[in-house]
Design goal:
Arc Repressor Mutant, subunit A, mainly alpha, 128 residues, 2 domains
Length: 128
């Protein structure tokens, strides 16, 4: 898995990386048990402060996306959310509202937005 950061982006680097990890898992590029690069290794590769990488990993571990095995590294956690369904739904609705707000501001129609979303959904692995 190749990670990349855009230093001119308004989004903080730790959030860019966290989103890349989440997206890689959702697309099946990373699966449960896969080892991620060490903090030192990734910070050297991306030329980013190691504290930034550590923060990304810590945040994702707190969310249950990753887990650390002392002395072995950081790994993708097995699927399963510690969050209740209403909390998960609330988080998803907030993200959807942000996406739809952006679509309206970019002058996409409802049908264009729906078509784009359906097209992008094919890129992800869904539980049946």
């Amino acid at each position: 898995m190749e990670f990349a950061v855009n230093t001119s982006d308004r989004e903080p680097i730790y959030r860019q990386l966290a989103e890349q990890v989440r997206a890689a898992i959702a697309r099946g590029q990373l699966t449960a048990g896969d080892r991620l690069p060490s903090v030192r290794e990734l910070s050297r590769t991306l030329v980013v402060n190691p504290n930034t990488i550590a923060r990304t990993y810590t945040d994702l571990e707190r969310e249950g996306v990753l887990h650390t095995r002392p002395g072995l590294g950081v790994f993708v956690a097995a699927p399963g959310s510690e969050l209740t369904r209403p909390v998960r739904k609330k988080r998803l609705v907030e993200r959807i509202d942000g996406l739809l707000t952006e679509a309206v501001h970019l002058a996409f129609t409802r049908d264009e937005t729906r078509e784009l979303i359906e097209d992008r959904m094919t890129q992800f692995q869904w539980k049946t």
